[in-house]
Amino acid sequence: LRLAIALRYMCGGDPYDIALCHGVHSQEVKRSCWMVVDAVNNTDTMAIQYPVSHEDQLRVAKGFHKKSTIDLWNCAGAIDGMLVWIQKPSKRDVDENIGFGEAKFMCGRKSKYGVNLQAVCDANRRFLDVSIGTPGSSSDYFTFLHSKICDSLEVEGFLKPGLCLYGDNAYCNSSYMMVPFKGSVSGSEDAYN
Questions:
Q1: Mean pLDDT calculated for residue range 104-115
Q2: In a designed cystine with 107, which of 64, 125, 136, 169 is the match (CB 3.0 to 4.6 A)?
Q3: Ramachandran bin of 183, using left for φ above 0, alpha for ψ from -120 to 50, beta for the remaining angles
Q4: By the 8 A CB rule, do 117 and 82 touch?
Q5: Contact 114/83 with Cβ under 8 angstroms?
Q6: What pLDDT, on a 0 to 100 scale, did the predictor assign at position 189?
Q7: Residue 166: which of 145, 184, 181 has the closest Cα?
Q8: How many CA atoms within 13 Å lie on the side-chain side of 150?
């Protein structure tokens, strides 16, 4: 029952309609949601963690290689960010809990309040790493620089030599990250982009 309530709420259901449908008080809807989130977060088999062994990283690369039409053999994950929309945080919330003003949560490009979510996935679109740690006014690259995956990638030997993450132009080329070619391209460069 708690799972059914939580899933319906997470899909955008109205708490009062859900409560009526399931015969519970409306406060139980959000309580059920948090109980399900806590249960998932406390289940080790559902933990999202980028593979630390070179063998597992190579398995990720082989998954991308199998789906590639241009012989990509070194992709150890695809990385991207997105804005998760939120209501404007209150001044009290940011002063007490965060340490910077509510204006930092406004994303100018989207004209929405939010937090940045960054994720790395495998060729089957399964999450390998997720980071939510910067307000909506931050760029994807800034979010990456302040993530645990960036700290790990900076450690020599963490990523199997020759492998890298693939990101969009929001990121920068480095020894562990490849991004699209800039400007007008053709042939294999266009296929890569």
A1: 80
A2: 136
A3: left
A4: yes
A5: yes
A6: 78
A7: 181
A8: 16
